[in-house]
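Input chain follows. Return structure tokens only.
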Amino acid sequence: MKTTVKFFLLALIAVSTIGLFQACRDKDGSINIFTIQDDLNLGLQVAEELENDPKVQVLDSAAYPAAYKYLYNLRDSILIHNELNYEKEFVWRIRIIKDDTTLNAFCAPGGYIYFYTALIKYLESEDELAGVMGHEMAHADLRHSTDALTRQYGLGVLFDIVFGKDKGQLVRIASQIKLLQYSRENESTSDMYSVTWLYPTAYNAKGAAGFFQKLIDQGQSGGAPQWLSTHPNPDNRVKAITDKWLALGGKVGQTFTSRYSAFKASLP
């Protein structure tokens, strides 16, 4: 009798879990225990933690209106020409971090996008920046942060947060989210979305490859991001991006190099 009850309870738990996962399916069919509001809350927490940190200098949008208009126009080119999963739900807010030593950009859950000046100055043309922006927006739109959080913190911790048992952990996670390590699959998928999203725009759709090609040309030295050591090799990423571009038709787009030089010159 006890064995029968035990198996009944296990079956009930299994059915309940399956029902929960079915209810938590994302727009692309993947399972995500976080709600869209959770993404927005976490992204807002990241923004507040980062922008209230006295060691982080975020350029004021009122002091640099032309630079921010430039970035938002670039963002709008992606949004206008494509149908993102969460185009309307997410904020897609952009901020520039004054840091000439950190070669990085990231997009927190909910669409909070950050570019470090070191990366902006490292890139050589507008299509390259557009490629990076598309890549980071894809991480948010495909909700890759949940995958990274699950690997880093464990499913049990995330369930506690989602179901209100440990909301304080949300603050602790937010302070570290910009350091999350995405999987190789996440990175490769975001590369492909970057090409797809840029293809209907005026940009050279394989712009993201320019960043990796420069790293290759420099022997991957000169301050290459730490995450490159755990993600697809730059050579492989250039080839994959180029192959995707060719598969879409190989349309030649614009690089807008002169315009990008003027944008870089407007930054401190």
